[in-house]
Amino acid sequence: MSLLSVENLTVSRGGLAVLEGVTFSLQAGRALVLRGPNGIGKTTLLRTLAGLQPPLAGSVSMPGEAMAYAAHADGLKATLSVRENLAFWAAIYETQTVEQALDQMNLRGLEGRAAHSLSAGQKRRLGLARLLVTGRPIWVLDEPTVSLDAASVALFASAVRAHLDTGGAALMATHIDLGLEEAEVLDLAPFKARPPEEGGHKGAFDHDFDGAFL
Amino acid sequence: MIALLMRDLRLAIRAGGGFGLGLAFFLIVVTLVPFGVGPEGAILSRIAAGILWLGALLACLLSLDRIFALDFEDGSLDLLATAPIPLEAVVTMKALAHWITTGLPLVLAAPLFAVLLHLPTPAYFWLEVSLLLGTPALSVLGTFGAALTVGLKRGGLLLSLLVLPLYVPTLIFGAELVRRGGEGMAVQVPLAMLAGITAATIALVPFASAAAIRVNLR
Question: Which of UniProt's keywords are assigned here (chain A) (predicted)?
Answer without folding.
Answer: ATP-binding, Cytochrome c-type biogenesis, Membrane, Nucleotide-binding, Translocase, Transport
